[in-house]
Recover the amino acids of this structure.
């Protein structure tokens, strides 16, 4: 049986996650300990080390990132899942460098918690039953293979961080260099990686976000076109109109004349 620790300075969040863990009812989870701070968590760890830790990444006095760093040095087998907010990108990026399993955005959804908890538990299991075959009548031969080691960060998690960061920035104010730095990737490598993961170049992805936002705004007849242009990152209304026509096949004015778009 595995020991789980939940670390967060907010009691409601600790209790909510504990309740969700009970609902998940994973048979590998035995004991659940809760700590209101990273310092308290370290005190508990001296008595009984947890196998899996779900920890807030930003806490007073000692943050979760410091806790992860220290545990990575003394107890590298301990598996961490971090809790973060939408503005914690730099903390999450740094946490991945120390081998965390993954991260969860607050408020934590049951399905996301279950997925990450299952991943952490699998990584705690030294051997994984991969194949069973009959060696003789009535007898099974079990082939045991070691589990695959987790990479420093998962592709799915990193692309989510990138998308959330882009959407949190004002339209038109995010650059490829800025985002590649966010996830600690080489500029050229990130450009190729992003296209492989999204099916679009970085510039096309940004353009699509801006134009889809413009379409929604154009459906509001109280907004002038120059106001919409500004909201999606264009200082020049003519540049906006040209970009919109290239994207939609119609100018903003023509789009508004379509029945139902007025």
């Amino acid at each position: 049986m595995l020991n789980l620790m939940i670390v967060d300075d907010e009691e409601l969040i600790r209790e909510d996650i504990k309740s969700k863990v009970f609902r998940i009812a994973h048979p590998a989870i035995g004991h659940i300990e809760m700590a209101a701070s990273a310092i308290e968590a370290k005190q508990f760890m001296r008595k009984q080390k947890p196998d899996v830790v779900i920890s807030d990444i930003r806490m007073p006095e000692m943050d979760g990132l410091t806790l992860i760093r220290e545990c990575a040095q003394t107890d590298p087998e301990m598996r961490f899942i971090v809790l973060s907010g939408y503005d914690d990108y730099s903390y999450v990026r740094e946490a991945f460098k120390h081998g965390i399993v993954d991260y969860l955005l607050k408020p934590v959804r049951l399905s996301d918690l279950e997925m990450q908890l299952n991943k952490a538990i699998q990584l705690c299991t030294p051997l994984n039953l991969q194949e069973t075959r009959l060696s003789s009548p009535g007898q099974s031969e079990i082939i045991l293979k070691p589990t695959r080691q987790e990479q420093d960060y998962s592709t799915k998690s990193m692309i989510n961080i990138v998308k959330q960061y882009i959407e949190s920035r004002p339209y038109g104010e995010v650059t490829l260099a800025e985002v590649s730095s966010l996830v600690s990737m080489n500029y050229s490598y990130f450009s190729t990686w992003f296209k492989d993961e999204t099916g679009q170049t970085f510039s096309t992805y940004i353009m699509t976000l801006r134009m889809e936002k413009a379409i929604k705004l154009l459906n509001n007849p109280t907004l002038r076109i120059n106001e919409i242009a500004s909201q999606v990152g264009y200082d020049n209304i003519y540049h906006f109109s040209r970009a919109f026509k290239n994207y939609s096949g119609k100018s903003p004015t023509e789009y508004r004349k379509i029945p139902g778009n007025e």
In short: Strands lie at 2-7, 29-35, 52-56, 79-84, 102-105, 127-136, 139-146. The CA atoms of residues 99 and 151 lie 7 Å apart.
